[in-house]
Amino acid sequence: MGEKLKSQPLVEALCEFQFELTGGNELTLPGLFYAAVRDEFPVQTSIIDEASFQIAASEIGGMRQFIKSQRLQLKRQDDSAMLQIGQNRLIVNQLQPYESWDKFRVMISEAFIKYAELCGEFTLKRVGLRYINHIKPAEVEGFSIDDFLIILPLFPKPLDKSIGGFQQTYEFSYMVPPASLVHRTGVVEKSDGETVLALDIDFVSRETVNLNSKEATLKWLCEWLDQAHNHIEDAFISSLNPNYYESLK
Question: What's the maximum distance between 2 C-alpha atoms anywhere in the chain?
């Protein structure tokens, strides 16, 4: 986050853009974008995303419809960062090592500029900045969650028992900038079997941006990113047990 920590629970930071394109080059955009960034992100992988939705009972007997879309992942050779481009989407992922907000913001801005130059006219429908943290307790069995996180529900008797696992999500509204902060915590078992406490903070815009020029859009974006990062950092610090936070410094 903003303050340099000696022990960093952050595992991934990402920024996601959703666009409404009017230039008509959606089909050629992934290839053009790869050509623009391949010197830094040469490793190319195609991913198929599958989404489903329920058709009403009056329409084809209530069947479930599946929609598939392709997403292109472009990685650095060392797997430290990745750009993803899908249907009207651009995602900028910073993995480990995460060096600083200033460097991550530069990577976001550069990827956005390249995308904007290639896609023609567009409206920016959504921006989301997200930080995912994994806290690793020293003892997996019987650790006290409130030694690390202070955002826990209070249960009346007879439910005031030791918590073995939990998942909770809260959404907070912000006026400056108009956005929602989605705050998720929980006990998560990773693919390697390791159990961690997850602190996942996502700051998502609530306004559509259609300014007169791409330069004005970039100026708006840089200001929005700094505000979003400040709110995420405040939420991160205030979510942690103060003693645990001091131990990270």
Answer: 61
